[in-house]
Amino acid sequence: MSNAKSELVAPEPEHCPGTQSEDAGQASACQGCPNQKICASSTPAGPDPDLDYIAQKLQNVKHKILILSGKGGVGKSTLTAMLARALAASNENLNIGVLDIDLCGPSAPRLFGVVNEQVHQSGSGWSPVYVEDNLALMSAGFLLPSEDSALIWRGPKKNGLIKQLLRDVDWDNLDYLLVDTPPGTSDEHLSIVQYLSGAGLDGCLIITTPQEVALLDVRKQVDFCRKVNLPILGFIENMSGFKCPSCAHQSIIWPALSGGAEKMANDMNVPLLGKIPLDPLIGKACDEGINPFLDETSEELRKNPAINVYSNIASALKTSLSAMEIN
After folding, report:
1. Most CB atoms closer than 10 Å: which of 86, 145, 192, 309?
2. pLDDT tens per residue across span 35-50
3. Could you give all domains of the chain from N- to C-terminal order, each with its CATH number?
């Protein structure tokens, strides 16, 4: 049994040129290597002409921010929707865009209450769906036959759709473009960073929950960001306690055994932009596509303490980006 594991790992040739080399899979040392076909197929084919086009297409978008999470189920899409609404509500002169590239779980249309809307195509590209006068959304969910339809695609086809969403959407002038990504550090993340490499990507926000299992995956996400030179604008801790809708008492659901996002932020010298409680009213508003910042039918929802947390996160993000511009 001691040799069984080593036999499963294909050994590299003695003079392996490396996967990043132009000779990967083609050098004489590669002959007979079990990885030859894989390396040859990943050899760079030269500069991608679409990168310059994407940069040109997004030249009127002032700030471009990725929303990341190490694992699924931590509330990344909810944060994206609420943060976009908070930014739009903070100043009616700001124009906000949301791009949902979570291809296997595009939930943004539901969160924004525009499930039945359709994307229109014109000579200048796809027109995003306007949720508010100053808030627009583009999601892969608009391209599926129904909410129940699964996108069963391999990596290259998914990456092609991500490129198309960047290349063909006519955003016009935006102050902020928030990109809701899938969980993890997979093809989609590498692709979006590569495609936006020439467009002036400001950085990312990383969302987590307090428990250690989520923080472990966030540390992997941080490692990914550093390897691809993606600035981390801040951490956000979601589900930081549960707020009872009856008595307003807040209970701890997931104890921060290792100090939670706050300690991790201090250890990694990354700002913690906010700690958001788990609140049933916010969850209900997102399920129904209601904008809590503008809802006139429920004073309880409009004055919910969690709303202030989202507003404070939006303010902290604007301050952070302004400081980057000065420096």
Report:
1. 192
2. 666 566 654 556 788 8
3. 13-44 (no CATH), 51-326 (3.40.50.300)
